[in-house]
Write a structure and sequence with these properties.
single chain, about 650 residues, name from scop, Rossmann fold, Helicase, Ruva Protein, domain 3, 4 domains, six-stranded mixed beta sheet, five-stranded mixed beta sheet, about 10% strand
Length: about 650
């Protein structure tokens, strides 16, 4: 109890204003002014029990009949009329008791000149001088009404402005970093203290080589003298480049957690706002915070939002505010010494679009490429994400890793979570291997749509289409090994074939051609069986076209073009209006692509004619069972696939193969 009390006493008494406090205060001020104004009007109405009369009533019933004692003209706009005391309580004035002080009526003056003329005529009709109407002129000022009339619009404008600023700030206050309106130039970066940075390298599975690089940064932050005594300079910045979901942000947090230093995190998109100069101001504030807390780590996620190339080829997409922000970032990274204890980490999925000035030595000295995890790394990642799950006895980490080639760490985490949800949906006591298979199928191909109505004729076409894929891939030596075939609609697909592709880093021309032939198996089967083709091959044709163009234009795997590649690793041509080759070369590329696809299609058609019996048997089994697994496939096909054994996995037939580009 004593420790708790002492800690409570040490807490500062000052608190930041709550989100929306300023707009709420402005609204209260407006309401107070409105209440004051309304109270003033009510007071006037209660004080002066006057009744408004028309010009006709005033002229005929009051003025010309000599019943008006006095008239007070106020601000040349209204006239306050007092009736003679002897006329009160009778006729038009029966509801006014004698002795009631005036004014008794009020009249809005349309024209002051006409009003004065009528009063003059009434005076001339008076038989006695004492019956003449007394006229007075007064100028009155309603200071409360005047104040409200110009303060209310001003306060409304200020309130709207504060409300907009409050909504713009994701932190909930009026500006970034606090409740001050003018704090929108602050960086608003999230600062994680060493006690809050609970991520370390033990939670980052795989990436052994990357960890070795990052451990050097950790060692410098812990023991800077070990390097500075030899005159060495630690890199100012390290940029992590890799596909989405490979753990770049997690790795940066782990570096901070291992080093035990403050971790200042901010997204690249948070620097740029609609106000000119705000991005540069936030960059300055970010580096100022880091220097004040040195040794520390600055982490800029998605740095391509501000670090895009300023090349002339993308001049149509220039943005002055973004370029000013980038210039300030370059200046700040040049402005501090290498051994000040501040290290900048950045992450991006698109390293090819970054400006060269940002990547030069002295700024981001090191570029670390993070690839998709290998089989062994996937096993380690599964081991991390399977810990919180209650697993069945049949779950094998090795089998799960082998069935997920090309999956990132985020994909694996999604599979584990989806499998747990499926198991809970079926009221199981543990997550079984079948749940992981179902989760993998759902993530790859989408949710099953068994309720979709498909006619018998369409079902037969789909069955032969998928059987064509399976038969072609079974007998093509360089195609992926078949795992199962299904005609159950999933996502946008009406059917799918799952494969177990080997993980390659290099692809030969024969492998490209066999993959194209396998993808054309569905259309070839339709032509062979039904003597006509359908629209069911859209995804296949898209994939085939991309593969063929990649062979010809990128990898130089065609005889027509030879050893030429038009792949642009810098990303400049992809964002410009011109191509890196002439129209004649474009025609050669189109011709070469068409020949490759046509030859592959002829090869597939001939193969299916040779194995027509197996094609019919598989299609019939698909119509009966809807899903056919590997054991049944081995019974249908006469011989096993001719291919070398290798590391296997699970992948959807349409649109899932990715080649290095």
């Amino acid at each position: 109890m004593g420790d708790t009390t002492s800690n409570d006493r040490k807490k500062p008494s000052s608190k930041l204003p709550e989100a929306g406090s300023a707009p709420r205060g402005c609204l209260i001020a407006v309401l107070v002014l409105l209440f004051v104004y309304a109270g003033n009007l009510l007071y006037q109405n209660l004080t002066f029990q006057t009744k408004e009369v028309t010009w006709t009533e005033f002229r005929d019933e009051m003025l010309f009949r000599q019943k008006v004692a006095s008239i007070t003209v106020v601000n040349k706009e209204t006239a306050e009329i007092t009736i003679r005391d002897e006329n009160l309580g009778e006729g038009l004035f029966s509801d006014i008791e004698q002795g009631t002080p005036g004014p008794h009526f009020v009249l809005t003056i349309g024209s002051l000149e006409n009003f004065e003329t009528a009063v003059s005529e009434a005076r001339s009709l008076a038989e006695r001088p004492d019956e003449a109407v007394e006229m007075r002129y007064e100028t009155r000022s309603d200071w409360i009404g005047d104040a409200v009339s110009w303060l209310l619009p001003l306060l409304l404008l200020v309130g709207i402005w504060l409300f907009i600023l409050n909504r713009m700030n994701p932190m909930g206050g009026l500006g970034r970093g606090g409740g001050n309106v003018f704090d929108f130039g602050k960086s608003g970066a999230k600062v994680f203290t060493p006690s809050e940075s609970k991520v370390n390298f033990s939670q980052v599975a795989g990436m052994k080589e990357v960890k070795v690089e990052m451990l050097e940064i950790v060692d410098f932050l812990k023991n800077p003298g070990r390097y500075t005594r030899l005159g060495a300079k630690i890199p100012k910045g390290v940029i992590l480049i890799g596909p989405p979901g490979t753990g770049k942000t997690l790795l940066a947090k782990a570096v901070a957690g291992e080093a035990g230093v403050p971790f200042i995190s901010m997204s690249g998109s948070e620097f740029v706002e609609m106000f000119v100069g705000v991005g540069a101001s936030r960059v300055r504030d970010l580096f100022l915070k880091a220097k004040e807390q040195a040794p520390s780590i600055i982490f800029i996620d998605e740095i391509d939002a501000i670090g895009r190339s300023r090349s002339q080829s993308i001049s149509l997409q220039t943005n002055d505010e973004r370029e000013n922000t980038l210039n300030q970032l370059l200046n700040e990274m040049d402005g501090f010494e290498a051994n000040t204890g501040v290290i900048v980490l950045a992450a991006t999925n698109r390293g090819e679009v970054l400006d060269r000035a940002l990547l030069r030595p002295g700024r981001f000295d090191r570029q670390i490429y993070i690839q998709l995890p290998t089989l062994i790394e996937r096993q380690a990642i599964f081991g991390v994400h399977l810990k919180p799950l209650k697993l069945g006895d049949d779950v094998s980490v090795e089998a799960l890793a082998s069935q997920t080639p090309g999956f990132s760490g985020a994909d694996i985490a999604n599979i584990c979570n989806e499998a747990a949800l499926i198991a809970a949906r079926h009221n199981k006591d543990a997550v079984e291997m079948s749940d992981f298979h179902a989760a993998t199928d759902r993530i790859i191909a989408g949710l099953e749509r068994r309720s979709q109505i498909i006619s018998e004729e369409e079902k037969r076409i789909i069955a032969y289409h998928e059987a064509g894929h399976a038969t072609a891939s079974w007998y093509l030596p360089k195609a992926d090994q078949l795992l199962k075939v299904s005609i159950i609609p999933r996502g946008k697909a009406l059917g799918a074939a799952w494969y177990t592709p080997e993980e390659h880093h290099i692809y030969t021309r024969r492998e490209f051609v066999d993959r194209i032939s396998a993808a054309l198996g569905g259309r070839a089967a339709e032509e062979l069986v039904f003597s006509e083709i359908s629209s069911n091959a859209l995804d296949d044709l898209e994939r085939v076209t991309k593969l063929a163009y990649t062979m010809v234009a990128y990898y130089g795997l065609s005889k027509e073009l030879g050893n030429l590649s038009y792949y642009d690793s810098t990303g400049e041509y992809s964002q410009s209006l011109q191509k890196p080759y002439s129209e004649e070369t474009a025609r050669k590329i189109d011709k070469a692509v068409a020949e490759i696809v046509e030859n592959a299609y002829s090869q597939t058609l001939a193969l299916l004619k040779t194995h027509r019996d197996e094609l019919d048997a598989l299609a019939a089994l698909l119509i009966d069972r809807e899903t056919v697994y590997l054991d049944d496939l081995r019974k249908i096909f006469s011989s096993p696939p001719i291919r070398e054994s290798g590391e296997t996995g699970s992948e959807l037939a349409q649109g899932q193969d990715e080649f290095p580009q």
